[in-house]
Design goal:
alpha+beta, Molybdopterin molybdenumtransferase, Aldehyde Oxidoreductase, domain 3, MoaB/Mog-like_dom_sf, 4-stranded antiparallel beta sheet, molybdenum, EC 2.10.1.1, Molybdopterin biosynthesis moea protein, domain 2
């Protein structure tokens, strides 16, 4: 940095906050560190008693923090993401442009953050967000940064966007509540209303309901009926344990589902099943994959379970693989806090 006359400071960057005091009215920074001095700023600075200023010497190849913020933000702006206004003190936020599930390119995010003098902080991916929600913030650490630092961060992203908000696309669902006690009317079906409420949070309407009992053939027939109705998601509740009369996993498989996982490293919800019915065209190509969920009983009485970690992506049509469930193990232990604050808690985060 160097000391120069205020009249010669136009175009230079302030090295420190400039405090203005107005008697009996206010005292605070009129110009903040990093501000680029303009012609109209000069008389104001002089009236504040600032005859000389410490400014950064902008050498060739150096980039101001606000200009750098724009470039870092651009790395984040995948579909469904927008910049939250202009940079302030080198920081710029990223917001959701629509309701949906936040997807974070974790590998590229780690690579960018491994670059010295830059940072991108995001929310945890895989969770629902709403239009206008804050998703991320970016900045460079110093006031000015070398061009090659930004180039390295951009290279670390490898042409990929760090963030995306995938809109919710599923609109209809079937809920198949297994259990002979429900089918016979001995007890009221308490599971379906819970599923209806959870699905409705993502704009999904339950248009098909069935209570087929426990017999595998009956459960398979109910699943076939749901598929024939053309729903976007099939949810089977109960009968998910390893007890001999718990036939739901077998029925889902017999109905033709491609099983992604039966079991997850999450408590509560270890017995979750996730699969897909791949609907193929005449040429054998998959035209549509309908997710099917085998939901364990814990989802009926626990506010947050593995279902809540998976459902946002299912609702947005994000294909799930075994690796997605393996990753849930870290953070997959619910602490049973009272009251439950999910999703604003460590569970799944």
């Amino acid at each position: 940095m160097k000391l120069i006359k205020t009249e010669e400071a136009v175009g230079h960057i302030l090295c420190q906050d400039m405090t203005q005091i107005i008697a009996d009215k206010s005292k605070g920074p009129r110009f903040k560190k990093g501000h680029v001095v303009t012609e109209k700023d000069v008389p104001v600075l002089l009236s504040m008693g600032k005859v000389n200023l410490y400014v950064w010497e902008m050498e060739p190849g150096m980039v101001h923090e606000n200009d750098a913020a724009h470039r870092l933000a651009e790395l984040c702006l995948g579909p469904g993401c927008v910049a939250a206004g202009e940079p302030s003190e080198g920081k710029i936020g990223i917001n959701a442009a629509c309701d949906g599930v936040l997807l974070v390119n974790s590998e590229r995010l780690r690579a960018v953050n491994a670059t010295d003098e830059v940072m991108v902080a995001t929310r945890k991916g895989g969770f629902a967000v709403h239009e206008g929600d804050a998703l991320a913030g970016t900045r460079v650490i110093p006031l000015v940064v070398r061009e090659e630092v930004l180039a390295a961060a951009e290279a670390a992203a490898a042409g990929e966007k760090l963030l995306e908000v995938r809109p919710f696309s599923a609109r209809t669902a079937a809920v198949i509540a297994t259990g002979s006690e429900v089918a016979s009317g001995l007890i009221e079906d308490a599971f379906t209303p819970v599923m209806e409420a959870k699905l409705a949070a993502f704009g999904i309407e339950v248009t098909c309901r069935a209570t087929p009992g426990d017999e595998m053939d009956s459960v398979v027939a109910a699943i076939d009926g749901a598929r024939a109705a053309g729903v976007d998601v099939v949810v089977c509740t109960g009968g998910m344990s390893v007890d001999p009369d718990d036939n739901t996993p077998g029925a889902i498989k017999r109905a033709g589902a491609r099983i992604v996982t039966y079991g997850s490293p999450v408590l509560p919800g270890a017995m979750l099943l996730v699969g897909y019915f791949d609907e193929k065209g005449a040429d054998g190509a998959v035209m549509r994959s309908v997710p099917v969920l085998g939901v364990p009983g814990c989802a009926m009485y626990n506010k947050a379970t593995v279902l809540d970690l998976v459902l946002p992506r299912v609702a947005a049509g994000v294909p799930l693989a075994k690796a997605d469930f393996v990753e849930l193990g870290e953070g997959g232990l619910c602490l049973g806090c009272k009251p439950c604050t999910f999703p604003h808690c460590p569970f799944g985060r």
